[in-house]
């Protein structure tokens, strides 16, 4: 495997693909469940007895809140599974599409538990206005703060 560190642009593009998956899948799940259980149109009758649509129902109901929370749980499951698989294989769907691999200091993949730690450490990158994701732009090692915390590096695996 090559030891050439990945460029920030390729890492950012891979992260956008992965973020889209972590957001889109739970949104589809939430929309589907909402449509099945909490959605629907409320109707009202005017003074003459004619029924008219009053809009979507379920938005402020306990069922609506439960569905939104279920969507958040699905997002956490998708993100956790993606982080674990990245630890095992070195790649997320975005990294696979762009030919990138996350490796440890020894040049091998991190392993599932370290992948989860790296995924959780992404909060360190996000909290200060996303500055941790920008660190590879000015650091010689091209690591984010989460990479430094876990001891990982993202390399370009294309030949």
Automatic annotation (TrEMBL):
Residues passing through the membrane, by range: 12-37, 63-84
Name of this protein: RDD family protein
One GO cellular component, as annotated: plasma membrane
Topological type in the membrane: Multi-pass membrane protein
Pfam family, one: RDD
Every RDD domain range: 5-150
InterPro entries with a match to the protein in the record: Pra-immunoreactive (IPR051791), RDD (IPR010432)
Organism in which the protein naturally occurs: Actinoplanes xinjiangensis
Compartments where found: Cell membrane
Keywords on record: Cell membrane, Membrane, Transmembrane, Transmembrane helix
């Amino acid at each position: 495997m090559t030891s050439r560190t990945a460029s920030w642009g390729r890492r950012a593009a891979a992260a956008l693909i992965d973020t889209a998956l972590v957001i889109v899948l739970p949104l589809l799940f939430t929309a589907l469940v909402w449509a099945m259980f909490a959605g629907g149109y409320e109707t009202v009758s005017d003074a003459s007895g004619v029924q008219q649509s009053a809009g979507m129902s379920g938005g402020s109901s306990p069922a609506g809140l439960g569905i939104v929370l279920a969507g958040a749980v699905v997002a956490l499951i998708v993100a956790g599974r993606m982080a674990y698989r990245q630890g095992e294989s070195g790649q997320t769907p975005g990294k696979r599409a762009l030919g990138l691999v996350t490796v440890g200091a020894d040049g091998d993949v991190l392993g599932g538990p370290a992948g989860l730690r790296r995924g959780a450490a992404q909060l360190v990158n996000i909290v200060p206005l996303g500055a941790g994701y920008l660190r590879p732009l000015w650091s010689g090692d091209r690591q984010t703060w989460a990479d430094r915390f876990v001891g990982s590096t993202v390399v370009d695996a294309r030949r």
